[in-house]
Amino acid sequence: MLASCAKDDDDNDPEPTVADNKISATVNGQEWEAKISSVAVSGGKQIYALKTSDSSSFQLFIPEEGTGNFDLATSEATLLFDDGTSPYSVGVSGMITLETNTSDEIKGTFQGEIASHFADDTLTIDNGVLLYSR
Questions:
Q1: pLDDT tens across 66-119, in order?
Q2: What's the rounded Cα separation, in Å, for the pair 23 and 25?
Q3: Least CB-packed of 37, 79, 83, 114 within 10 Å?
Q4: Rounded to two decimals, what is the model's pTM?
């Protein structure tokens, strides 16, 4: 008698939806995720997410309108991270890709590097996801 195991390679894993209203990323190899707590619009959009368990937070600044790729070092898009003890907001490099950017929905991905404001320390941000729906 022969038996076999089926391999799950159908790529039907559920995609995150904007209803999740979150920012998630891998920060120096550690998974990070938090619900978006505010979105402000004034000369662009500021999206803020606070992880209450350790007081760490992400802030993303993106254009008020428009989609596509935005270089975090040279465009109107940038990011800040606070690990709960120190802000990381200088020497920003990387990319944010906005798939959707309207007043009701924002969906995008990001990655990059960012340096501490006060210490000689750099964070690597990978697999960043931004999902927001009003």
A1: 999 999 998 889 999 999 999 999 999 999 999 999 989 999 999 999 999 888
A2: 7
A3: 37
A4: 0.83
